[in-house]
Amino acid sequence: MASKNSGRLICTKFMLVLLMTLIAQQIYGQSRFRVLALAESTGHHIQYSARAKVWLNQLAADSNFTIDYLQNTDTIDEDLLSHYQLFIQLDYPPYGWREKAAAAFVKYIEQGKGGWIGFHHATLLGEFDGYPMWQWFSDFMGGIRYQNYIATFVAGEVNNEDKQHPVMKGVPGNFRISMEEWYTYHKSPRPNVHVIASVDENSYTPNTPIKMGDHPVIWTNPAMKARNVYIFMGHSPELFDNEAYKTLFKNAVFWAVGR
Predict the structure, then answer these.
(1) Under a CB-based contact definition with an 8 Å cutoff, are residues 50 and 71 in contact?
(2) Whether the model pTM is above 0.70
């Protein structure tokens, strides 16, 4: 009798351990969060986006999150965005969006339904390709309008203005970007956003007359409920050979996805 009871007890303990193991596997096997990245399918940012996807896919695999990609805004609506905790605008302009996509995105940002990281082309604000300027997006980016860019590309030193901000953890006080087409705007967004970093226009190599004075290149808009950060640098695939840039990008992902 004692032997039967001992056998049952061992069996019960084994089943309990097995159940707990299966539960643990389910919990820890699931993605920590889901990311939706919007990237252009044509144009001169293709090489950057292709390199970014390789890097992001590796980050997702290493850090246990899921990332999906879209090449246009056709399928974006509130239901789609509800499945994602972070939206990355990976070199995609703020014009030509489907009406339902734009409305869903505004709600996503204003109501803090998820985080947002925008790169480079996300501040191409104005009238382009027959589309009017998206005024809400301009306000989101600090009330700016695109004015010009350095078509010949120059190197520049980026100054870390907020070393305490989570996206700048481990990023040097200043770091060099070896090739970028630095956009200029009709005014600085600084009065309407929190500037995290700016480019020193006096460091441009070779020098160029295309400058705007106070020139923020990384900032966040604290007026929005969604955690958001705009990072201007995002044209050259060589950026993924830059340790400071990769650290900044990685930090931005894990900060923006938080609440």
Answers:
(1) no
(2) yes
